[in-house]
Amino acid sequence: MNLILLGPPGAGKGTQANVIVKEFGPVQLSTGDMLRAAVSAGTDVGKQAQAFMDAGDLVPDSVVVGIIADRIDEPDCTNGFILDGFPRNVAQAEALDEMLEQKDLQIDAVIEIRVDDEILVSRIEGRAAETGGERADDNAETLKKRLKVYHEQTSPLLPYYEKKGRLKVVDGMLSIDEVSAQIRGILAELK
Ligand code: AMP
């Protein structure tokens, strides 16, 4: 089972990805986590990515597409994967389509976690307080930028996947458990 989780920052993609991994067993591929690890490790990728991340901008497509292409080739992905935070724009989605076609793979469902912008600000502030500001981009100013980037660059992926008949929507305003239940319902239908 190969899935994409879509949604604005703070929608709960990481939280729901964890639930799906535990219950259904795919590996979670989070470009945000991979980039943060690269920044901490001080690799070339990390050095290229850091300024974009701190500003709330997207890291260049060539960087993230390369990371995902390498990761999808690893053996643990053969049992299924869940993309969390990738693709973030139509160019990345097209690169992903090409990559999957070459490997004779497909995406079974794209799950959008839909949340109103107003609630995201308080969630991100909550996350920043909980993690003691561990993420440099969890602050009100950068969040506004990340939301703008989501609406301008990432939300065109919704009609992109809708046209392919892959898009499923869950109500991200509900509790974590209720959102998980909706996702379980979608995944049960795929089997
Ligand atoms: P996330 O943890 O998914 O919210 O990502 C944190 C930051 O990493 C984003 O604001 C971007 O700067 C960068 N990032 C993560 N995934 C991507 C992607 N697919 N394309 C470009 N930048 C990304």
Molecular structure report:
This protein has 191 residues and is α/β, with parallel strands linked by helices. The chain has one domain: P-loop containing nucleotide triphosphate hydrolases (Rossmann fold, 3-Layer(aba) Sandwich), CATH 3.40.50. 58% of the residues lie in helices and 12% in strands. It has 9 helices and 5 strands. It has helices spanning 13-24, 31-41, 44-55, 61-72, 90-102, 117-130, 140-154, 157-163, 176-190, and strands at 3-6, 27-30, 81-84, 109-114, 167-171. A 5-stranded parallel sheet has the order 2-3-1-4-5, with helices on both faces. Helix 1 packs across helix 9, helix 2 (31-41) crosses helix 3 and helix 4 runs parallel beside helix 5. It is globular. Adenosine monophosphate is lined by residues 9, 31-32, 35, 52-53, 56-59, 64, 85-86, 88, 92, 137, 146.
Instruction: Assign the CATH topology.
Output: Rossmann fold
Instruction: Identify the CATH homologous superfamily.
Output: P-loop containing nucleotide triphosphate hydrolases
The CATH class, by name, is Alpha Beta
Architecture, CATH level 2? Answer: 3-Layer(aba) Sandwich
Shape: globular
Order of helices and strands: EHEHHHEHEHHHEH
Mean pLDDT: 93
**Oligomeric state, counting identical vs distinct chains:** single chain
Number of helical elements: 9
The count of domains is 1
Largest beta sheet: strand ordering:
2-3-1-4-5
Query: Hetero groups bound?
Result: adenosine monophosphate
Note poorly predicted spans. none
**Helix content, binned percent:** 55-70%
Q: How many strands, what sense, and barrel or not for the largest sheet?
A: 5 strands, parallel
Number of strands: 5
Distance between the termini: 9 Å
The assigned structural class equals alpha/beta
Share in β-strands = 5-15%
- Rg measurement, Å: 16 Å
